[in-house]
């Protein structure tokens, strides 16, 4: 049976595993001028990936509601939650609204993660660990605590204008192993199973469906093989979650657009945040590109 998981958006989202290192994901250090905002996770639907069922940890009997609770607890205590491969998403309600005018008050907003910069390549691009997650926001116009007030609006990052809508389907294997996927742009491949690092199933264990489908804006691939070193370099993108180190990961609240028209959305208040993995790529032994999501933080510039 075909099962499609739809976000409450104009676009649905496809999950693609993050271009992560094989270390356990962990957040960066706190800034003394930052103030975390508590959240409640309303939806948590990762695409397959090497940290799925680990961050947060799945246990026998857990269902979607339990995993939302675990994701909420993890984020609020400063840990990170994986979104798996391209399209994997999380929907969060902020305990207090954020106003886009904070950009005029020497304040900024970021969603923390575990990205870092290693060096700069021959083209002057910073690289390290970058698994960019696209950020969508919504105001609670009817003040009922639910993201049912129209379309999600997209916070644009530096390469969003180069992205294209795509649908992706992931197929559950019979046993632990590589997870095949196909995409509407003609891309096909698999999320590799890497038992040397993580031996748990990479397909979300609380989902009964043998096929998961998502859609979203596919950002340009950011990983490439450096032939001299034999290692993959992941170019850092600004304006996303898990794109830059926490101190440099401010979201541009002056550039929030309607994802269908590309026009400025004019949104003034943010009550809900929706994040999904924006790159569909596998980078050798690093595995799939998958966004990790941490705390939502207001900070002074």
Give short descriptive properties of this protein:
mainly beta; 1 helix; single chain; four-stranded antiparallel beta sheet; 4% helix; 301 residues
What report would you give on this structure?
- The structure is a single chain.
- The chain has 301 residues and is mainly beta.
- The strands form 6 sheets. It has a 6-stranded antiparallel β-sheet. The chain has a 4-stranded antiparallel β-sheet with strand order 8-9-17-16, with no helix packed on it.
- The longest helix is centred in the first third of the chain and has 13 residues, at 64-76.
- The relative contact order is 0.32.
- The chain is built from 1 helix and 21 strands.
- The protein has one helix at residues 64-76, and strands at 15-16, 34-37, 39-45, 81-82, 86-87, 89-99, 107-111, 116-120, 126-129, 133-138, 153-155, 164-171, 179-183, 188-191, 211-218, 223-226, 231-235, 256-257, 269-277, 292-293, 296-300.
